[in-house]
Amino acid sequence: MSRPTAHSDGHAPGAHPAAAPLQRTGRECTHSERGQTTLLIIGFAVVAIMMLAVAVDASAAYLRRSGLDSLADGAVLAAADGIESRQVYEGGLGRRATIDPQAARRNVVEYLRSTSAARRYPGLSCVVEVGTDRVVVRLASPLDLPITPPGWETRPTISGTAASFVTVSQ
Question: How far is residue 161's CA from residue 136's CA, in Å, rounded to a whole number?
Fold first, then answer.
């Protein structure tokens, strides 16, 4: 009996070359290509962790600013109560209500004390600007970032501002 002989390309007679199993000799993959997938996975993981850190820190800053804005709103409304009471009771408001600067500042300090703002926002600073018919309150507080980037030694300062205008309509 005769045996089928292999062709010069290594396939059996009548067999299609694409149907032949692939054989690896180990020479196709060079040493410099090994670990490339691992390197890509590590790179993507580092980028994903950095993006997560930025999202967490940005959310913390946004929440701090939102809280300071709300606190400033309340403080400026308390300051607007600093209309000169003598003027109101003795002569009425007339065409213009005048805000007493000392009363406005005192009302802001009392409001911040009554809301325990310094406990909620350590390092809180407050600037009160009083005009004849307006009050502007600026609050600022340093923020300890949940995920501090390497090399950052200073804490970012987040601020909130609110203004109130006193108008008289007849």
Answer: 7
Say which residue the tokens 């507080």 belong to. 141
Is the distance from CB of 115 to CB of 29 less than 8 angstroms?
A: no
Q: How many CB atoms lie within 10 A of CB 74?
A: 17
Beta bridge partners of 140: 125, 159
Give the span between the Cα atoms of 170 and 166, in whole angstroms.
13
Which residue ranges make up each domain of the chain? 35-165
Buried residues in 29-48 as b, exposed as e (16+ CB within 10 A): eeeeeeeeeeeeeeeeeeee
* Pair of tokens at residue 40: 């890509």
Task: Please choose, from the candidates 87, 125, 121, 129, the residue with its C-alpha nearest in 3D space to the C-alpha of residue 104.
Answer: 129
CA-based max dimension of the chain: 132
Query: For residue range 16-40, what is the model confidence (pLDDT) as tens digits?
Result: 555 555 555 555 555 666 778 888 9
Rounded Cα–Cα distance for residues 164 and 11 (Å): 90
pLDDT digits (tens, 9 = 90+) for 95-104: 666 778 888 8
d(CA 97, CA 99): 7
